[in-house]
Amino acid sequence: METVVSGIRPTGNLHLGNYFGAVKNFVKMQESHNCYFFIADYHSLTTHPTPADLHGNVRNVLVEYLAAGLDPEKSTLYVQSDVPETAELYLLLNMNAYLGELQRVTSFKDKVRQQPDNVNAGLLTYPTLMAADVILHKATKVPVGKDQEQNLEMMRTFARRFNNMYNKEFFPIPSAFNFGEQLVKVPGLDGSGKMGKSEGEGNAIYLGEDPKKLRKKVMRAKTDSGPTEMNQEKPEAINNLFKLMNIVSGEDTFQHFDDLYNNCQIRYGDFKKQLAEDMITFTEPFRERIADLNSNDEYLAKVVKIGAEKARESAVKTIKEAREIVGFRKFY
Ligand code: ADP
């Protein structure tokens, strides 16, 4: 069984875009792969969260990913800082990572633009920490989106470089996990092409969204004055709402409103009301599970503890071997 590693950023709440674009695939992947999912709290220190925020964010994503279907019995779900071997491998890899190549990484250059007052070494060496996360478990596959391709290339470089330096095929060279046809882009409610939490309030629908708020967001979604010609092409904002309906509603409902649009009889008020109700129905089980998990600290503690134990099992083994390879020998 192939080993797959994927990180979860401890920021914000899961929205439908995250669910259909990533988490749903993770849930499926855990049936056929040896999966490690970690909450990337070391990584998040690059933005200097307060201690209280940091813990709250980690807990929140833990709850939401569990509610969305990550199963701690099928995969290893852990908090990155519970596995300090990650930090040691990061250190070892940093010794063979060069300033020039790290400075050329697009996501680093973006961060320099976004937070010019906090260009710390953690940001620069983000790719070595990412590489450590993955090769710590000798993973062969990493599920990454298009925007992460450069980081994957860096992981491959660092793994190869370690192997070459010590003349040993120690780390497998990870490649992209290909979801193939299953990769979808979920549009936002504001007429923009993508649902995302950074695209502004009102654009994203969260899995734990309060039904009242959800209704309000959908009813406020951007539309136009309606179709004027039979079977005309839908403008982007309208097409996006249809795409969302296609995801959350039944086929008959979608067809019904598509026919109304094509006959120029659609009433956007009814259309959006239906979309909102179907979104509420779709998110209902998630809301319930989130509430259940939020009131069950004992269960959360158990999940995290078991995850840390499982992750450390493979991490300790890798680090022990890596230490020997680089030449650390015990005197005592
Ligand atoms: P955000 O910051 O908008 O919540 P992230 O950039 O943290 O999203 O992405 C987390 C994961 O969710 C990634 O795998 C990303 O590809 C996926 N994702 C985010 N938004 C969408 C979307 N609108 N459609 C499909 N996938 C998405």
Task: Explain the layout of strands and helices.
Layout: E1 3-8, H1 16-32, E2 34-39, H2 41-44, H3 51-67, E3 76-79, H4 85-94, H5 99-103, H6 106-114, H7 121-124, H8 126-135, E4 141-142, H9 149-165, E5 175-176, H10 211-219, H11 236-248, H12 251-262, H13 268-294, H14 297-326
Parallel strand pairs: 1-2, 2-3, 4-5
Helix pairs in contact: 3-13, 4-8, 4-14, 8-9, 10-13, 11-13
The protein binds adenosine-5'-diphosphate.
Adenosine-5'-diphosphate (ADP) is lined by residues 9, 12, 17-18, 21-22, 145, 184-186, 194-198.
Question: How is this structure best described in words?
Answer:
The protein has 332 residues and is mainly alpha-helical. The chain contains 14 helices and 5 strands. It folds into 2 domains: 3-184 and 296-326, HUPs (Rossmann fold, 3-Layer(aba) Sandwich), CATH 3.40.50.620; 197-291, Tyrosyl-Transfer RNA Synthetase, CATH 1.10.240.10. The protein has helices at residues 16-32, 41-44, 51-67, 85-94, 99-103, 106-114, 121-124, 126-135, 149-165, 211-219, 236-248, 251-262, 268-294, 297-326, and strands at 3-8, 34-39, 76-79, 141-142, 175-176. The strands form 2 sheets. The protein has a 3-stranded parallel β-sheet. The longest helix has 30 residues, at 297-326. The protein starts with a strand and ends in a 6-residue tail after the last helix.
